[in-house]
From TrEMBL:
Species annotation: Candidatus Caccousia avicola
The Recombinase domain, residue ranges: 159-290
Region feature Disordered, mapped onto this chain: 422-445
Gene3D superfamilies: Putative Large Serine Recombinase, Chain B, Domain 2, Resolvase, N-terminal catalytic domain
Listed name of the protein: Recombinase family protein
GO molecular function: DNA binding; DNA strand exchange activity
Length: 491
């Protein structure tokens, strides 16, 4: 029987053991099971990741694709909850995939055939208990993290200038002096009037390197200057992360209110004095600009233009006493800046032929047509009212039958004329729409930057900007990656 082997270990499990030892023991157990059952292993899928989120597990997603494609007849794993113990919907995706493909789940204890009603019920029961166990594990871990933070321990990755250590059983930090010297220089330079870009350029010239990138940027310097850990303080529960849901593995960072923070004096030594840290924060506050939330968008290509060298988003920066502004990569020295107005015009001109090929249907009809139709409908309503009055006058004996018929013929003639006018109006409106087919280019004309940005985001996935300095100025070229083909049905 062709069988795939799936191995998974959560980072939160077996903290006293190494990941390699755990997976090795699991592999040996499964290989022994395969030999005893005479299974043919046709593929091995191995990963170290939590089973909580299906779409953050690339090997599991690859296994499900192979199961759907009929690559195996069974999947061998240590237990049902190794396949996943996240939400009911995600567990349902896994079990339904196995059931529809007719693929069995084999563990050292039992073989499950989800097409069998008893096995299906037993599997659903096991997945229910797996979810409950996950909730208990998360609850215990959260209590442990809260206790560690309250005792002054530090659980996150060590920030620049520190390295992780332990004080007894409590995780904490110790100073890494070759990096701490640059941290002190950053705080002193900023407190004495230097800007973050100048500090980043100085650090790069000195040969300093951050932990997760090749060089310091303005953003990296600002993050260090804002971090209270350098004063010996530990802050926990400052932010939380919400999963984006669906088939996206990403998550969204949300700042908690200050009342929810847990602020304690850490066990680790301070690199900078509290007084210096406060001076830096005061200067930052005096130079800070209001948040962009609620302000009008000015860059129609916001979030779309990326640097071709490093992949980072290009930012629109204003120019003192000059209109337009310029596009700048935040990574110092990565690529020359370019004039934003020229870049935006070039992109619009390049994309206009695409916009002309996309027909759109206007949301609102012509207001003149609306007014004419409303007047005609009002006139028809008045005629119906007059017909009712004719009947009343006839019944009251005020109108004779002959006079009633004469008046009624006049009203019927007027109604026929109104019906013809309404029909002609509807035909004329349809003809006008047929003669003038609006395109996405018409929507672009006169659109605000925010409306234009929404239009570009429908069409464009990203725009790579490559800027090079030449003897006659900067040369800029763009590579546009479209989100969809120019078909109105896909827009």
């Amino acid at each position: 029987m062709k069988t795939c082997m799936y191995l998974r270990k959560s980072r939160a499990e077996d903290l006293s053991d190494t990941t390699g030892d755990t997976l090795r023991r699991h592999r040996e157990t499964l290989e022994e099971t395969a030999r005893s059952m005479q299974l043919t292993i046709c593929g091995v899928y191995e990963e170290v990741v939590s089973g909580e989120d299906l779409y953050a597990r690339p090997e599991m997603l690859r296994l499900l694709r192979d199961v759907r494609d009929g690559a195996c007849e069974a999947v061998l794993c240590m237990d049902i909850d190794r396949l996943g113990r996240g939400t009911m919907s995600q567990q349902g995706v896994i079990l339904e995939t196995f059931k529809e493909a007719g693929v069995r789940i084999i563990t050292p204890q039992k073989t499950y055939d989800l097409r069998d009603e008893m096995d299906e019920d037993y599997t659903e029961l096991q997945t229910f208990f797996a979810r409950k166990e996950l909730k208990l594990i998360k609850k215990r871990m959260r209590r442990g993290v809260e206790r560690t933070a309250a005792d002054g321990g530090y659980l996150a990755n060590a920030p620049y200038g520190y390295e992780k250590t332990r004080e007894g059983r409590l995780p904490t930090l110790k100073i890494q002096e070759d990096e701490a010297v640059y941290v002190r220089q950053m705080f002193l330079a900023y407190a004495n009037g230097e800007g973050a870009p100048a500090i980043a350029a100085f650090l790069n010239a000195c040969g300093a390197h951050p932990r997760r990138s090749e060089s310091f940027t303005r953003g990296a310097v600002m993050n260090i200057l804002r971090n209270p850990v350098y004063t010996g303080t530990v802050i926990w529960n400052r932010r939380r992360f919400l999963r984006s849901g669906g088939q996206s593995p990403g998550c969204r960072k949300i700042e908690n209110s200050r009342e929810q923070w847990v602020i304690t004096r850490g066990k680790h030594p301070a690199i900078v004095a509290q007084e210096l840290f406060d001076r830096v924060q005061a200067r930052m506050q005096s130079r800070s600009k209001p948040s962009g939330t609620g302000r009008e968008l000015v860059n129609p290509f916001a979030g779309l233009i990326r640097c071709a060298n490093c992949g980072g988003l290009m930012q629109l920066r204003p120019r003192a006493n000059r209109p337009g502004g310029y596009l700048l990569c935040e990574r110092a020295g990565c690529c020359p800046s370019c004039n934003f107005s020229d870049a935006a015009d070039a992109l619009r001109n390049a994309l206009r032929p695409l916009l002309r090929r996309i027909p759109i249907q206007p949301d609102t009809p012509d207001p003149c047509d609306q007014r004419r139709e409303r007047l005609l409908l009002d006139a028809e309503k008045r005629l119906r009212t007059q017909e009712g009055r004719l009947c009343t006058l006839l019944e009251a004996g005020i109108y004779s039958p002959a006079l009633y018929e004469e008046r009624r013929r006049i009203l019927l003639t007027q109604r026929e004329k109104l019906s013809e006018q309404l029909s002609r109006l509807s035909t004329a409106t349809d003809n006008q729409r047929d003669e003038k087919t609006l395109t996405a280019e018409d929507a672009l004309n006169g659109a605000s930057p925010a409306e234009e940005n929404r239009l570009w985001r429908l069409l464009v996935r990203s725009i790579l900007c490559r800027s090079e300095r030449g003897p006659d100025g900067n040369h800029v070229c763009f590579e546009v990656q479209l989100r969809c083909s120019p078909d109105a049905s896909q827009l």
